[in-house]
Specification:
Blueprint: H1 3-22, E1 29-34, E2 37-43, H2 46-49, H3 56-68, E3 77-82, H4 86-95, E4 99-104, H5 106-111, H6 117-124, H7 144-151
Parallel strand pairs: 3-4
Antiparallel strand pairs: 1-2, 1-3
């Protein structure tokens, strides 16, 4: 294993362990690296911020984007103490992060009470079979936001 990868993943694990013992949130840490430099860091803050989206990877993405003043993290690498959950994985894709390195697997997290397997199962189900009721409501104007977006010439695409 490349020495830099090992150092970065150790740092993410150390951040996670420190967060678990400090009462800052769950036992998760992540950092984002671009061109060999850390541009973003995050630890789980779900319980301390009362924000269910405040996972380490999401916090690290927000920090990196703020630090480089861009919502695209192309060419960057994320090092996470644990395999990203479905929400974090989606955020990683949206941020256009090039590579993911993680230490613990999602099965290790499940043993500690952080089981996200049901979310993966729910995503595969048709909308009408999910455990959370989902209803599509058709109104006449439902496409107007997209129609407007398509017509804007000077938009920032993502």
């Amino acid at each position: 294993m490349d020495q830099n990868h090992k150092e970065f993943i150790k740092e993410a694990v150390l951040m996670a362990a420190k967060n678990a013992t400090s009462g800052g949130g769950g036992p998760f840490g992540a950092l984002i690296v671009k061109n060999g430099e850390i541009i973003g860091r995050g630890v789980n803050k779900v319980t301390t911020s009362n924000d269910p989206t405040a996972h380490a990877e999401v916090i690290a993405i927000r920090d990196a984007c703020k630090n480089i003043d861009n919502f695209k993290l192309e060419g960057s690498v994320i090092y996470a103490s644990c395999e990203p959950c479905p929400m974090c994985l989606a955020a990683i894709y949206w941020a256009r992060i090039a590579k993911v390195y993680f230490a613990a697997a999602n099965t290790d997290a499940a043993k500690a009470g952080f089981d996200d397997s049901f979310i993966y199962e729910e995503i595969r189900l048709p909308v009408e079979k999910r455990s959370i009721e989902m209803n599509k409501l058709d109104i006449e104007e439902y496409l107007s936001p997209f129609d407007t977006w398509i017509e804007i010439e000077n938009k920032i695409t993502y």
